[in-house]
Amino acid sequence: MAQYDELDLKLLRQLQLDSTLSQRELADRVGLSQNACWRRLRALTEAGILKGASARVDREKLGLRLVVFVMLRTRHHSAEWLQVFRRHVLTISEVVDFHRIGGDYDYQLKVVTEDMASFDKVYQRLIEKVELDSVTSYFAMEAIAEGRPLPL
User: Fold this and answer.
1) Among residues 58, 36, 45, 35, which one has the least CA distance to residue 15?
2) Cα 144 from Cα 126, distance rounded (Å)
């Protein structure tokens, strides 16, 4: 599905707000029959636009009160180093977002964990297997907006 239309965008907006809606409720909200809704959802999934469903979890209620943005700089840019680095970072479950970026740093990680002691363990794991030029951490004071829907 290379093309999508306003009805597809309406479906995606509704799913971003509440992916627990039944197909009937979703169809009603966007003005489609249940069968037409199902066909569109299937096409969006086959096109790779819809990538499953997930639940938004209140991290603070689970004791995950510390959010840290970790900025990394490296002198290594070979394909082999990058493959080892990516595999290593992806073994650290506390890393919830991982981006290669442009600018003063090469990578940005978002780490979610309980407290400073648990972040230090994440930090130690992060630096133990790969050589990094610099690691700078920024600690979030308050989440003003987190996990917002895409602007469709």
Assistant:
1) 45
2) 27
Name every residue whose Cβ is closer than 8 Å to that of residue 141 and which is 6 or more positions away in sequence: none
Within 10 A of 3 (CB to CB), how many other CB atoms are there?
6
Q: What is the pTM of this model?
A: 0.89
| pLDDT tens string 91-147 | 999 999 999 999 999 999 999 999 999 999 999 999 999 999 999 999 999 999 999
Note the residue count of the chain: 152
Q: What's the CA gap between 73 and 115, in Å, rounded?
A: 24
Asked if 95 and 111 touch (Cβ cutoff 8 Å), the reply is yes
Q: Which two tokens stand for residue 148?
A: 């917002």
Across 98-108, b (16+ Cβ under 10 Å) vs e yields beeeeeebbbb
Which stretches within 4-152 are classed as H helix?
6-17, 23-30, 34-46, 79-90, 116-128
- 55 SS3 class: coil
Distance spanning both ends of the chain, measured CA to CA:
17
